[in-house]
Structures are given as structure tokens and as C-alpha cells.
Amino acid sequence: MNIAKHNLCLYKKSPLSIQTYTVWHSSRHQSSLVSRQPNASSVEERKQSPSQLHRISTVNLVRNIILGKVFTSPFLFKHGVACLSKIANSRSAMLDPDRNALLRALIKPMIYDHFCAGTNKLEIKKTLSYLKTMGFKGVILIYSREIPAMPVEQLRELEPLAQDEDIDIWRDGNVKTLDMVEPGDYVGIKFTGAGPRVAQALALGRDPPQQLLDAMAVICERAAAQGSRVWIDAEQQVFENTIARWTVDMMRRHNTNNQALVSLTLQAYLKSARKTLENLLHQAYHEGWTLGIKLVRGAYIGSETRALIHDTKTQTDECYNSIAADLLTKSFPGFNKQDFPRVELFLAGHNSDSIRKAYALYQGQLQKGETPPPIKFGQLLGMADDISCELLAMGDDGAEKKTAAPMVYKCMNWGSVRECMHYLVRRATENQSAAQRMQSTVGVMQKELRRRMGF
Ligand SMILES: Cc1cc2nc3c(=O)[nH]c(=O)nc-3n(C[C@H](O)[C@H](O)[C@H](O)COP(=O)(O)OP(=O)(O)OC[C@H]3O[C@@H](n4cnc5c(N)ncnc54)[C@H](O)[C@@H]3O)c2cc1C
């Protein structure tokens, strides 16, 4: 048994909060990057040697297996999520995990600590430092204050405020987040978290309120001063055009130093994704700033106008992979390699096929002497840990092969257990819809646990 020395953790300490109009769900799943069909001759050897999961603490390994079993059992999942939802939506002190010590003792170690960074600065610092010890290049930390969603008709009726307290709270939360990250880390920003009046401006295509502009200036200047980065989340289509316009204004102002201080999120499930990217590339080229792109598939398929989204999952996959490939090879139609705009690419997702293809292409470009845009990979904390570890292991292999190690990040929220309850319900739901991948993950985690126990 060689458990002790593998006890670097994926722990978190606590929780967080929330977002607003958000729900990231995934759907299906691919196999992990880890081979699941070792040939017979290598089985014995693998029992003895550390696997790519050796970075994960035993506590976290066991928690991954238990939660995986719950998420993939329809009975346990249904009752588990019903309990979590009841707690998240209750106003009773009995069901408030911040006030009921017993409830907190049940939720925090098993669920909260798995998905969230921490409830206070000390816990969060500990989580971040453990992740870096595991080999992650950095983190994306999100202050996710949640504001109840409102229909657009209701947003329209809101009166303007001279001083919007929601924006102040949102700014302070993001500044506090910046205080907890290090150079090279990201702070994740969700505009709708700034409250209903900001959501109103987004939905109606208005300019940002001056108070929000001032808040963003403070956040960007602080991030730049400490060497951190800012990424802006993509949300529902009703907000997206305006989010993109505001984000381009920020990139124009802050991405001038051959570096993407600010990144925009592009949703590949949209039929318009490639056209949007083409426009962004033209703007970046003509105006001379660096385009920061965080590429995701898109989380709102359940609530968006379906016609805006590719008809099939395969088309979404093709769109995601082709965007990554065209950026990495600087071969986007209408542009030539020599004067391709400066781009930084962040591939956010848990799809091993896309990750594998993009990383192989990136390495291929480097080996050919090309200069592909820098690429980073990110997964959510508590999800796809096997894929994250596989990427980290590629870095180990890379050292031998003299290739660049992938830059791997974990993305997570922070806040009190109570504040995090809605986020936790969403993570549970997302994991269930990713049941096939979860089964795969549980399989490799069980194999690793057996290896540590010597059988
Ligand atoms: C670090 C990180 C940051 C993220 N940030 C954001 C964000 O800012 N905004 C956002 O919207 N999402 C965000 N997401 C969520 C992301 O968009 C996906 O929902 C999630 O990652 C699952 O997709 P996947 O790429 O991991 O792979 P997969 O699980 O292989 O793909 C699932 C996705 O494919 C698409 N899809 C599924 N079925 C169909 C179908 N029938 N037709 C067409 N398309 C289909 C959907 O987009 C679905 O989410 C983020 C995810 C991560 C890991």
C-alpha cells in the first residue's frame, strides 16, 4: 500500500455561491483519455505502478466513487437531488447549512468540499495551493452571487437607480476573489451576477451602466497589476449579444499588450459560432488587440431557442473541434498565417476527444516549427478529475519527449455552504446528465483505489 505518499489533495474547503441566470449542464460523454482496455500483459504491471490518478488524494478518490455511484443510480440521484433542492430553496433555519451544524456536517465534507473552493480566505488558499501542488497551472475562481432569474418582460419594467447596491456587492465580491488568486490565475465573471438592472441592460442591448463600467475598470486594473486574468462567462442568448459587445470593449481597452487580460466565451453549440468568431478575428486584426477566446460547447441547450443551436451533438462537436483546429493552425478562412491576429485559446470542457485532438494538433504545430496560439485547458472542480489528471500526466510524458506540457486549470466557485446550495444542485444535475462519463470515471477511480489497496 502506498497510499500516504499519494495524498496530494483535491480538497476544497468550502463554498460559495452562486450565479444568477446560469445553469451549466453537460449532456453526454466520451471515454476518458485514460485507456480502459489495457492489454493483458500490462495489467499486472499497472497494479503495481502508479496510475495517472496518483495525484488525487485517497479521500477525494473515495468521494469521487461514492458520488459517482449516487449520480449514476436513478433512485439515489432522484432522492439526493430532491433533498439538496429542498435545502437550497428553504428559508427555514433548520434547513440552513450555515446555521444547522448537523446539516452542515453532512453536506460540507461529502458534497460541498468536492465541488467548491472554500467558505473563507484560509480554506480557499488551501484548496488552491493543493491544486497547484497536484500540477495544475492555475485556477479560475468565481464569485457567484446569485440573483433570482426574472423574465425579460419584468426586467423591462425596472426603474433605474442612482446607486445600484447590487453592482457594489458584485464588484466587492470580485475584488475579494482577485485577492485570493495568484499571478497567472483567472477570476471568472458573470455579468448577470451584478443584479437585475445589469440584466435589464444586457437583455435590452443597452450600454453598461457607468457604475458597472467603473467596477469593471477596478477589476481589470487590479487583475493586470497582479498578473491575473479575467474571463467573462457566456450566458443565455437573450443576454449574449450584449455580453459579447461589452466584452469586446474590454478587450479593446485591456488586451493591447500582446496579451489577453480579458477573454470572451464562445459557445460552439450555436449555429452562429463560426460567424461570431470571424467577426471577432476581423475586429482584433484591424484594431490591433489580442483576442482571448474561451471555447465551450454551451450550457443552456435545455432553455434556449432550439433553432439557434446545432441540430445534433455531432455538429456541435464538429464546430468545437474545427474552431480549435482553425485557431491552432491559424487557418481560419479569410485570414492568412502571416498576419493572423494574436489569439489566446482556452479550451473549457470535459470532452476527452476534443481535448486529445487539440493537444495533439498543438504539439504537431510546435514540432513543425510553427507558432500556434497559446492553449490552456480547464475543467470544473469535482468533475472529470480523471481527464484533468490525464492532461497533467501528458506533461510528465512531455518532459521526456521534449514537448510542451499542457497548461491545465481547475475552475471553481467559492462562498458559504448556504450560498453554494444552488450551485451544488446544478453540479449534481450536470453530473447525472453526464452519467455515461461518470460511469467511466467511477471505473478508473475504482481501479486506482484497488491499486492503492494492493489488489
Ligand atoms: C471550465 C468550464 C467553463 C465553462 N464556462 C461556460 C460558460 O461560460 N458558458 C456556458 O454556456 N457554458 C460553460 N461551460 C459548460 C460547457 O458549455 C458545457 O456545457 C459542458 O462543459 C459540457 O460540454 P463538454 O464540452 O464538456 O462536452 P460534452 O459533454 O461532450 O458535450 C455536451 C454539450 O454538447 C452540446 N450538446 C449536447 N446535446 C446536443 C444536441 N443534441 N445538439 C447539439 N448540441 C448538443 C451541449 O452544449 C452540451 O452541453 C463551462 C465548462 C467548463 C468545464
- Distance between the ends: 9 Å
The total count of strands amounts to: 8
Second-tier CATH architecture: Alpha-Beta Barrel
Describe the largest sheet.
Answer: 8 strands, parallel, barrel
Give the cofactors and ligands: flavin-adenine dinucleotide
Number of domains: 1
Describe this structure as you would to a colleague.
By secondary structure, the chain is of the alpha/beta class. It has one domain (4-453): Alpha-Beta Barrel (TIM Barrel), CATH 3.20.20. The protein has 16 helices and 8 strands. It has an 8-stranded parallel barrel with strand order 1-2-3-4-5-6-7-8, surrounded by 8 helices. The longest helix is centred in the C-terminal third of the chain and has 19 residues, at 435-453. The termini are close together. Mean pLDDT is 85; it is low at 1-49. Bound molecules: flavin-adenine dinucleotide. Flavin-adenine dinucleotide is lined by residues 24-30, 233-234, 265, 267, 269, 296-301, 309-310, 312-313, 316, 348-351, 378-380, 411. The site of flavin-adenine dinucleotide (FAD) has 31 residues, from strand 4, helix 12 and strand 7. Belongs to the proline oxidase family. It catalyses: L-proline + a quinone = (S)-1-pyrroline-5-carboxylate + a quinol + H(+). GO terms for molecular function: FAD binding; proline dehydrogenase activity. One of its GO terms (cellular component) is mitochondrion.
